[in-house]
Inverse folding.
């Protein structure tokens, strides 16, 4: 049959094809809350015109990926797009913050920061890593107040197997007082210890000078304990105030009280800045874990507002997520001349774990996750999600290739999401990805069940890109299909392959 | 992120590394005879007594049934009777029989041998391959289309990685098996997809990338374009043909042995011929011989003998040996005294106190023996060589000053190779081999 004729038929049959960009809504940015006011005040000063808010299709994808590290299914996307409620965006955020994947995805991020790993160079040992991870994930699921979360980690004692948070003191290479202080400063103050004056370093290290470690009769069990027999130093809080420790008191308790006090702005600034960085791609202070006097926030009022909100909500992290995810700033389109000053949503490559989970979800295939140390090897069951791996020693070559952090240091910069040649080769041409597409049970079921070629292509688009195809894209799909057989195996494989390799799929946008 | 040019800072990731360290590191007071390294990594730790440091005089509790070492073509150097082909090439390589670090666990010893440092400090240091990739790769003007740091065929994981240098300096692991009819390098060679279909798909991809079309000029979109171009140079261009062993004559392939290791050696030669600065052959040959050591040796050493001797011969014939360092060793040696009891039945344990390394080409002298172990191969007898001494010597031959600086992510001054202050002693570069 004449190819042109087929295009004509397809195009004519299109149901109300979108004329407009699939990425932008028709809604202009209007400040909706305090975040929007504070950010847009800066735009006004700098004469920046923000883009429009993103389309519903972009929104649903962005919300799922940012809040839960999980791609929405075609059904979830369709339901959201069909919903005509004016408050559906806020309702979606409320729903996502209660999903199990919310706890899973943020437990993954926190596992990076806390370096949860069984072997090398952090040596927690597998069952201690699992215990620690489970504690962490429960804390995030239950919405444990962040001040309590920090206090429990900092004051923990006991067995690595039975007192999970005690692993905080084991998940570092350097367990000398100075090394512990460095880790605590990075984790909870977002501060690089090596940039502190020596006196301040010594003062902080003294809080950890009586942390003891001992083995037990059980294989690989280790006890973390307060050891008054060790020499106590002269502890000084990071703000320069000397600390008073009562006789027999564990100085870690005193430090924890100081740290989580509402008066300690350094504590709240570090965490709200991190959450902002995680959701917007750039910290109000950048790097997000390099807070110091000579690295000022880009928008001090915004930082202060989020800190006040955190304290007023009794350190409820979900409250901060909700504030940011409901802001107009977070809903801006990516299509803008510049994303500086948060005046557009920046393109960011999907995290390694999120990317492979998305591919698995779309194709209905599974990965093998293993740890080869120690023997016998660990193998995770089929359909394990990468974002929910409990231990950094368990992984795959894909995760390594795509920049999963090694969990050596807890620095945010360990996660590298910049695209590389080798990653492109893998996505474009590896037997791994090729096999997943060709042998996908989900795609085969779709091809079997959906007789109408337009409907099939629409379903593929919704599944992979969380939106229906545009009229132009319809035509391209038909043109690429040999003999116009859009439903043929080769055509479907090529379409899925092309969408997997698109910027729209590989990036958060 | 839009409209921001890719700065060097971003290029290195967000950590703020700078290039400042590179010129000093790359040039000061160093030779540069060598251009490439082929590292033959003997994961598991092969027994020094059964390879390059035989001890027949120690008796059968030490040498087992391998009690007849053979003379080489260099007078006075004897090696294992299972290495007859390498025995004819001893003039091309030197042996170090006094390697030592005292680390007896695979992962920590692997790290130490390939970084020169003990594990457990604050930082994870880059391996030799990553350091060479830093100083000889793209940031140093390497223009090749093949990635500058290749591993044949499976990655080693964390022990030979980029450490704090970040993922840009990670090796490209080929996957696949060069001993198969077609070496299916993962990502480069796709089975069952014709070049025509590849080209059609590429056009299709460009048409279908709607977001990229809407965001031209964004630095991430630019990076997507650039990486795609590079990828297709390997998929469709001539560059990927380096992995196509059908371009070699059958006799040449036979010379190397039709084993995964032998053909990996052949691929390594093809890679350095095209200027790739660092190739690791990750030889997972079952060298961790806790049990039945001698059966494994009889089975595996002939493969190694064939592949490695062919590589040395071929490099030499092509005039490439002068510019190519060949470096062979595992993470440690093995217990000199054989454990004959069940369940080991003639096994050897881990031995970090002393082990052997082989070094050839790149301006290193051949036909020498550096250092010695004691009569039973249990301790270093003379001239200890620590990993940093060996690694530093390799750097020097490549024109990288071992006393130069690495770009540490927090700006901490960091030497390329450690001094004794970092924990392991230093016994000096291998001046006797240059």
């Amino acid at each position: 049959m004449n190819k042109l004729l087929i295009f004509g038929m397809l195009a004519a049959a299109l149901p109300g094809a979108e004329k407009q960009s699939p990425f932008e809504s028709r809604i202009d940015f209007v400040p909706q809350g305090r975040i929007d006011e504070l950010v847009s005040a800066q735009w006004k000063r700098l004469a920046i015109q923000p883009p429009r808010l993103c389309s519903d299709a972009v929104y649903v994808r962005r919300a799922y990926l940012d809040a839960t590290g999980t791609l929405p299914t075609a059904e979830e996307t369709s339901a959201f797009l069909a919903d005509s409620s004016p408050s559906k965006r806020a309702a979606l955020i409320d729903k996502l913050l209660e999903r199990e994947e919310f706890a899973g995805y943020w437990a993954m991020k926190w596992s990076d920061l806390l370096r949860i790993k069984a072997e090398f160079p952090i040596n927690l040992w597998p069952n201690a890593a699992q215990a620690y991870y489970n504690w962490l994930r429960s804390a995030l699921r239950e919405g444990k107040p962040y001040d309590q979360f920090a206090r429990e980690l900092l004051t923990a004692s006991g067995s690595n197997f039975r007192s999970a948070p005690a692993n905080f003191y084991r998940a570092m290479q350097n367990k000398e007082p100075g090394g512990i202080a460095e880790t605590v400063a990075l984790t909870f103050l977002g501060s690089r210890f090596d940039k502190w004056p020596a006196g301040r370093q010594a003062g902080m290290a003294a809080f950890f000078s009586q942390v003891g470690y001992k083995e037990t009769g059980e294989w690989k069990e280790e006890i973390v304990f307060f050891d008054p027999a060790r020499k106590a130093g002269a502890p000084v809080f990071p703000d320069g105030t000397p600390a008073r420790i009562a006789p027999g008191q564990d100085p870690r308790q005193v430090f924890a009280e100081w740290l989580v006090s509402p008066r300690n702005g350094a504590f709240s600034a570090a965490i709200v800045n991190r959450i902002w960085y995680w959701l917007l791609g750039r910290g109000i202070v950048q790097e997000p874990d390099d807070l110091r006097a000579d690295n000022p926030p880009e928008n001090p009022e915004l930082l202060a507002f989020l800190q006040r909100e955190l304290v007023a909500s009794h350190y409820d992290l979900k409250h901060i997520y909700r504030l940011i995810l409901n802001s107009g700033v977070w809903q801006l389109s990516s299509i803008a001349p510049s994303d500086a000053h948060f005046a557009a949503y920046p393109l960011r490559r999907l995290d390694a774990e999120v990317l492979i989970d998305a591919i698995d979800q779309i194709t209905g295939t599974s990965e093998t996750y293993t740890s080869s140390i120690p023997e016998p090897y660990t193998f995770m069951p089929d359909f394990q999600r990468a974002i929910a791996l409990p231990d950094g020693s368990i992984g795959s070559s894909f995760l390594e290739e795509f920049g999963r952090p090694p969990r050596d240091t807890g620095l945010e910069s360990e996660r590298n999401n910049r695209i590389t040649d080798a990653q492109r080769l893998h996505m474009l041409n590896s037997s791994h990805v090729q096999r997943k597409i060709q042998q996908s049970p989900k795609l085969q079921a779709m091809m079997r069940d959906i007789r109408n070629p337009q409907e099939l292509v629409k379903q593929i688009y919704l599944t992979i890109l969380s939106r229906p195809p545009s009229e132009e894209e319809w035509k391209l799909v038909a043109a690429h299909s040999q003999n116009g057989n859009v439903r043929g195996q080769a055509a479907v494989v090529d379409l899925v392959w092309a969408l997997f390799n698109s910027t729209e799929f590989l990036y958060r946008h | 992120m839009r409209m921001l040019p890719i700065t060097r800072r971003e290029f290195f990731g967000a950590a703020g590394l700078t290039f400042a360290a590179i010129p000093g590191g790359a040039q000061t007071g160093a030779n540069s005879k060598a251009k490439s390294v082929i590292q033959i990594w003997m994961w598991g730790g092969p027994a020094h007594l059964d390879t390059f440091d035989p001890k027949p005089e120690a008796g059968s509790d030490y040498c087992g049934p391998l009690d007849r070492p053979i003379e080489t073509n260099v007078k006075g150097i004897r090696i294992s009777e299972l290495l007859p082909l390498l025995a004819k090439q001893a003039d091309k390589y030197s042996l170090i029989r006094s390697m030592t670090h005292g680390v007896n666990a695979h992962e920590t010893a692997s790290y130490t041998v390939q970084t020169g440092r003990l594990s457990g400090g604050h930082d994870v240091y880059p391996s030799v391959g990553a350091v060479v990739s830093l100083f000889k790769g793209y940031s140093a003007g390497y223009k090749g289309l093949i990635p500058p740091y290749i591993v044949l065929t499976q990655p080693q994981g964390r022990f030979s990685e980029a450490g704090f240098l970040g993922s840009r300096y990670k090796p490209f692991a080929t996957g696949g098996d060069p001993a198969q009819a077609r070496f299916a390098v993962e990502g480069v060679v796709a089975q069952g997809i014709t070049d025509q279909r590849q080209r059609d798909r590429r056009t299709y991809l460009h048409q279908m990338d709607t977001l990229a079309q809407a965001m031209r000029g964004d630095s991430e979109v630019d990076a997507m374009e650039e990486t795609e171009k590079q990828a297709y140079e390997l998929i469709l261009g001539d560059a990927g043909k380096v992995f196509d062993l059908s371009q070699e004559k059958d006799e040449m392939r036979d010379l190397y042995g039709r084993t995964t290791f032998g053909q990996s050696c052949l691929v390594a030669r093809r890679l350095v011929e095209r200027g790739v600065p660092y190739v690791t052959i990750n030889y997972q040959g079952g060298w961790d011989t806790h049990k039945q050591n001698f059966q494994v040796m009889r089975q595996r050493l002939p493969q190694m003998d064939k592949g490695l001797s062919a590589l040395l011969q071929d490099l030499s014939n092509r005039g490439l040996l002068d510019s190519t360092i060949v470096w062979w060793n595992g993470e440690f040696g093995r217990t000199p005294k054989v454990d004959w009891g069940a369940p080991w039945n003639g096994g050897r344990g881990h031995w970090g106190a002393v082990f052997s390394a082989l070094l050839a080409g790149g301006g290193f002298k051949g036909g020498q023996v550096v250092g010695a172990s004691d009569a039973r191969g249990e301790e270093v007898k003379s001239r200890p060589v620590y990993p940093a001494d060996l690694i530093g010597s390799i750097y020097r031959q490549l024109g990288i000053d071992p006393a130069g600086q690495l770009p540490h992510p927090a700006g901490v001054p960091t030497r390329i190779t450690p001094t004794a202050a970092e924990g392991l002693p230093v016994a000096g570069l291998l001046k006797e081999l240059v």
Q: What stands out?
A: Chain A touches chain B through 69 residues (CB under 8 Å). Chain A has 23 helices and seven strands.
